[in-house]
Amino acid sequence: MNEPQAAAETPERILLPRRLRAPEVVALLDSLRRRAETGPLVLDFQDVEEFDSSTLALLNYIRSHHPDAATVNIGGALARAGESFVGRPAAEEPEAPPSGRLPGRALAAIADRFLLQVKSLGRFLAMFGDEVYHLGGYLKERKGVYPGETWNQMFFMGYRSFPIVCLLIFLVGVTISITSAAQLRLFGADIYLADLVGIAMLRELVPLMTGVILAGKVGAAVTAELASMTVLEEVDALRTMGVVPEKFLMVPRLLAITLVVPLLVAMADVVGIFGGIVVARVTFGTPPSAFITEMVTAVDWTDFGWGLIKTVVFGWAVVVGAGFKGLTVGRSAEEVGRATTESVVLSITLIIVIDCIFAFVLY
Amino acid sequence: MDVIRARNLTVGYGRTEVLRDLEFTVPEGRITVVVGISGSGKSTLLKTLAGLLPPLGGEFDFAGSRVDYRSEASLRFLYEKIGVLYQGGALLNGLTLYENVALPIRMQHPKMPEDMVGDMVHASLAQVELAGSAEKYPAELSGGMTKRGALARALVLDPDVVFCDEPSSGLDPITSALLDDLLLRLKETFKMSLVVVTHELRSIARVADRVLVVNDGGLRFSGDYADLAASDDAFIRTFFLRKDSHDDA
Fold this sequence. Notes:
Order of helices and strands of chain B: EEEHEEHEHHHEHEHEEH
Structural class of chain B: alpha/beta
CATH topology of chain B: Rossmann fold
Distance between the termini of chain B: 39 Å
Oligomer: heterodimer
Radius of gyration of chain A: 35 Å
Number of domains of chain A: 2
Shape of chain B: globular
Number of helices of chain A: 13
Strand order of the largest sheet of chain A: 1-2-4-6
CATH superfamily of chain B: P-loop containing nucleotide triphosphate hydrolases
Number of strands of chain A: 6
CATH architecture of chain B: 3-Layer(aba) Sandwich
Low-confidence stretches of chain A: none
Number of strands of chain B: 10
Radius of gyration of chain B: 18 Å
Distance between the termini of chain A: 77 Å
Helix content of chain A: over 70%
Number of domains of chain B: 1
Helix content of chain B: 25-40%
Strand order of the largest sheet of chain B: 6-7-8-3-9-10
Mean pLDDT of chain B: 91
């Protein structure tokens, strides 16, 4: 880096180099600070030929921070550029703090935030009602939805989600069995592992885990897709074509999730219980036939049925939540990412709240 | 006859008024150009006229009927009579160009035989010289082709009015001029009314019959393009004269 060289005959005079751009300006500032302490300075711009906006900012800086330093021989292009250089505006007066005492202001802020959430909840419930109406309208009139779109969505939600759902549910089945086996062994109640796994899987773990996986996989994808369409004006385009976007985009997804979830749940139940069978065989040496015989004494079709109904409701919550976040997004690409994250959080929250309500009603 | 008539129309988002107390008309069978600098509210006005953004005040008639944003029937009437060319085209990415253009027909006339749908789509694509690209997806089209494809979709149901939001944006001068020619042909051949939002002076000079100039929250000029030269409004003179001198250069 070129260190500016001081003229030998006058130590207070700094002859600036031919090239005075950002790297040289930064180096000069260090030198300036040191020399300013020893006495007045003269900065000679005579040789400066290469400069940029940092050179012009330097002139402003010297005037404001080193009023004793003189700048000489500023001519030609540098002088003309300096005249047209617009520096930063003067700092604005800071805003006066809001009036009122702190507890009052805090309460007002909390109330505002609460009202915003209530309004948002109202809009979500209104959309949920609209979707039920649109789905009913479609089933009655069979129009307003693109032909074949429901199959596309079923392929995405079902076929593409199937491997991950099966893998995770199997691992959950194995985990819950291993955890329980150690306790059951203490009481010599090995065979009751089958009851435990059957009830836990059919009633609770399969619906809950499937719902959460759908929230992460399907919900995020639906929100990202719809939010991108909103940002790119495709949703506006649909509306001006006389299409109702809330019907055109949401009904195929709702139909798909309704049709796909029972298949996913049935497969997940089998895979989860299979995880239990594997652990029982390895840990206690329980034959699979004995495991299944014991399990069917503890569970019945209502357990499977309620688990299935719960998962369909979770699927609806995921799709409507995702659609709500996707279709109410702002107009910037940044908001697509935010809406997607919020959609997953909303879906999981809804799933847990609905699960809690089911638990109160059913058990 | 005027196809759109606005009275004291105020447009904006939420509580923010972008343009206030607009009084203007859009004549039938002519091209009306909405002109203004970036951020002046041109697209906001277009969205309101296209039934996407409720006005914050005032009212407007479309084809002799008051547009009531609270009435589904009123909006449906409006949507049946308009076509919109969006700034980025807004073609649905999951559908081919053919399927995009067929979409309004299939949605509004679900019982129309597929042969007829095909004929209408191909006629519309031929109009914009894209007959050979029917099976391409939007991602496979250039910027100019996307705009023309979107225009084909806007035209496929022969709307009374076509709204075009910045049709030349992002296009090279030659493609932009081709699009202008297309708009002129629509007006002359089909007696279509067009409302074009733009700030491209070359386009304005080529296509405009009537001009609405918006700036600083209001309407600065509403009249024939030929009358613009006589305006003594400082903004209009700066906007047009500066561009004219630029064009001459």
